[in-house]
From TrEMBL:
<protein>
    <submittedName>
        <fullName>Nucleoside phosphorylase domain-containing protein</fullName>
    </submittedName>
</protein>
<dbReference type="Pfam" id="PF01048">
    <property type="entry name" value="PNP_UDP_1"/>
</dbReference>
<dbReference type="InterPro" id="IPR000845">
    <property type="entry name" value="Nucleoside_phosphorylase_d"/>
</dbReference>
<dbReference type="GO" id="GO:0009116">
    <property type="term" value="P:nucleoside metabolic process"/>
</dbReference>
<dbReference type="InterPro" id="IPR036770">
    <property type="entry name" value="Ankyrin_rpt-contain_sf"/>
</dbReference>
<feature type="repeat" description="ANK">
    <location>
        <begin position="564"/>
        <end position="596"/>
    </location>
</feature>
<dbReference type="Pfam" id="PF00023">
    <property type="entry name" value="Ank"/>
</dbReference>
<dbReference type="GO" id="GO:0003824">
    <property type="term" value="F:catalytic activity"/>
</dbReference>
<feature type="compositionally biased region" description="Polar residues">
    <location>
        <begin position="314"/>
        <end position="324"/>
    </location>
</feature>
<dbReference type="InterPro" id="IPR002110">
    <property type="entry name" value="Ankyrin_rpt"/>
</dbReference>
<keyword id="KW-0040">ANK repeat</keyword>
<dbReference type="InterPro" id="IPR053137">
    <property type="entry name" value="NLR-like"/>
</dbReference>
<feature type="domain" description="Nucleoside phosphorylase">
    <location>
        <begin position="13"/>
        <end position="290"/>
    </location>
</feature>
<dbReference type="InterPro" id="IPR035994">
    <property type="entry name" value="Nucleoside_phosphorylase_sf"/>
</dbReference>
<feature type="region of interest" description="Disordered">
    <location>
        <begin position="314"/>
        <end position="357"/>
    </location>
</feature>
Length: 632
């Protein structure tokens, strides 16, 4: 009897992926226990079925209706692993087209399982490569299945050799559903490879004298075959091409459309029930029974894998350590300042230094093509891995730009909670933000690779960056400055990659982002500050001249105002960034625009302490006589 009980996301350790509703139904019928649905994650478009098989809590997901192929499979798997972070391994379970040969007597209803064979990892992507003068050349590689699954496969094979196979037992669970019965599939007929289908939804018009005579087996139970599965973004319906590709790769057993989307980023075991022969006679009559056979084998594999204790953990932390306590912050609301021109952020004189901690550890997983694994590769300065992950997503590389969530190290968060009363320091950073802050030997090449792979409309992706956490964690800025969260306890700043590059003073990144059509005047953040404004007040670069010049030379507007009416020059003067202030003045920035409290740039230069005389004189020389205040 099926029971239902709610669990937590971290309790699910096995992922099962299907492409068709028939495959999903077959896998659902293999559950020993069904679980209640969990609350939908707002960032995840997948719909999941939850339950238990043996000792394993499993999460099942099916591709959206009408979407098939490697790219949708990679997207679905990415979202699944992002939501269910305790998943240890995954299996792709469904149907495929068989490749009958003298070496493999494959029949309809049999099962093909991916397994390393003749130098291939178990799955090959036969349509991935490049056109050359000598013809199409296949390139790239795919990983093999995880060792735990390959070990389970061998254990199942041994059980079958001892007469202890359980596929028929599990398949019998579908007997109550007429659609999945073998007799509903019809006859198993293999036609000569040179004989094409004669038309119609069935082979009623095809000549039976062109069928291939094969000896009867004497039983109707599925036979399991192990070897190479061929994957591509197209259906194989050509027997001649089928046999040619099979021979090229050392006897391919099956053709399908989703596995290659998973194997680079997240290796899994691929289990396919054979529903046709990858030829022009293809139809759907055997799909249900073949899906049931694949689901039955998948269950048999799971039942031989012991349950592993999974450590329940929160999203990977930002490990920022400090040997000094953060100073008590200013609690005064800047809007009520009697001076009238104080910005919402604390002035530069309150800055303190945090001892550099360990580099931020945003991501988990080495092979799965996900936003987390891409950020991990960027942090490790692993250009080759970045290129592989981007290539694995082909046309859907934009999915890798989803924000990665990371929370502060517990001690660090507790100190800020004590001072500010905020619940957490959370960061949602994208791969572009990670690339902008990276300072490795390959950081520019990595950023270039990202910008080449991503659609231009995503260049201004917004990350929710807690600047207290992020600046002190960044390799470029760690320990240079410390800022407070905003007055309502949320994020100090939401910023685009260009704004983040401007804050970090990364001039090369600014130029590359500009060339990629990033918006120099974007104000997609809480304070409505442009990248130039953020650079003027928040830059942590020891020498910001190149970055300032890149922003000013690229068309940044000088006199835009934030939500307090401050321009870039206002903010540069507040922060006493005299070099930046001089660059703004030389570029023609206004010195007489008032902020919301009526204070002009010339007023600030005259009254605030620490403004160099050179800057004061430059501002005075640019202030019209009618606008000069007393003292100028």
């Amino acid at each position: 009897m099926v029971q239902r009980r709610p669990l937590r996301r971290q309790d699910y350790t096995v992922g099962l992926i299907c492409a068709l509703d028939t495959e999903l139904a077959a896998v659902q019928e293999m559950l020993d226990e069904e679980h209640e649905d969990l609350e939908q994650d707002g960032h995840d478009n997948n719909l999941y079925s939850l339950g238990r098989i043996g000792d394993h809590n499993v999460v099942i997901v099916c591709l959206p209706s009408g979407l098939m192929g490697n790219n949708p499979a990679a997207t679905v798997a990415t979202q699944m692993r992002s939501t269910f972070r305790s998943v240890r391994f995954c299996m792709m379970v469904g149907v495929g087209g068989g490749v009958p040969s003298g070496e493999a007597d494959i029949r309809l209803g049999d099962v093909v399982v991916s397994q390393p064979h003749q130098g291939y990892g178990g799955v090959i992507q036969y349509d991935f490569g490049k056109a050359t003068p000598n013809g199409f050349r296949r390139t790239g590689f795919l990983n093999s299945s995880p060792p735990v699954l390959l070990g389970a496969v061998n254990k199942v094979r041994a059980n079958h050799l001892r007469g202890r196979g359980r596929i028929s037992e599990h398949l019998a669970r579908l007997d109550s559903l007429p659609h999945f019965r073998r007799e509903a599939a019809g006859p198993d007929i293999l036609f000569d490879a040179a004989y094409n289908h004669q038309g119609g939804p069935s082979c009623r018009l095809c000549k039976l004298d062109r069928r291939v005579d094969r000896p009867p087996r004497g039983h109707d139970n599925p036979v399991v075959h192990y070897g190479t599965i061929a994957s591509a973004n197209q259906v194989m319906r050509d027997a001649a091409q089928r046999d040619m590709i099979s021979a090229e790769f050392g006897n391919v057993l099956c053709f399908e459309m989703e596995a290659a989307g998973l194997m680079i980023g997240f290796p899994c075991l691929v289990v396919r029930g054979i529903c046709d022969y990858s030829d022009s006679h293809k139809n759907d009559r055997w799909q249900a029974y073949a899906a049931g056979a694949a689901a039955a084998y998948a269950k048999e594999v799971l039942l031989v894998i012991p349950r592993a204790e999974v450590a329940h953990s929160t999203p990977t932390s930002m490990n920022v350590e400090s040997s000094v306590n953060p100073p008590p912050p200013l609690r005064t609301d800047p809007r009520s300042s009697t001076q009238g021109f104080s910005p919402r952020y604390p002035p530069d004189t309150t800055n303190r230094h945090l001892t550099p901690g360990t580099p931020p550890d945003l991501c988990s997983g080495e092979f799965f093509a996900s936003p987390e694994s891409l950020c991990r590769a960027i942090q490790r300065d692993d250009l080759e891995r970045v290129q592989v992950l981007l290539a694995s997503c082909v046309d859907s590389a934009e999915m890798l730009l989803a924000p990665v969530v990371a929370t502060g190290e517990p001690w660090y968060v507790s100190r800020w909670r004590e001072y500010w009363g905020i619940p957490s320091l959370e960061r949602r950073t994208t791969a572009l933000h990670c690339a902008v802050e990276a300072a490795g030997n390959h950081s520019l090449a990595i950023l270039r690779a990202l910008l080449s792979a991503l659609p231009w409309r995503l260049i201004d992706a917004v990350g929710y960056v807690s600047l207290v956490d992020s600046i002190n964690a960044s390799e470029r800025a760690r320990g240079k400055i410390m800022l407070a969260p905003d007055s309502v306890g949320g994020h100090m700043q939401t910023c685009t990659p260009l704004a983040w590059a401007a804050i970090l003073g990364n001039a090369m990144a600014i130029r590359m982002l500009k060339d990629a059509r990033a918006d120099l005047n974007s104000r997609a953040n809480w304070l409505r500050v442009t990248p130039l404004m953020a650079h003027c007040f928040l830059t942590v670069a020891p020498s910001a001249g190149d970055a300032t010049g890149s922003l000013l030379g690229g068309g940044a507007f000088l006199d835009l105002q934030d939500d307090l009416g401050n321009t870039a020059l206002h903010l540069a003067l507040f922060a006493r960034n005299s070099d930046i202030a001089m660059a703004l003045l030389d570029a023609g920035a206004s010195v007489v625009l008032p902020n919301l409290n009526g204070f002009r740039q010339c007023d600030i230069a005259r009254t605030i302490d620490g403004i160099p005389q050179q800057v004061q004189l430059a501002i005075r020389s640019r202030t019209p006589l009618f606008a000069r205040s007393f003292g100028y």
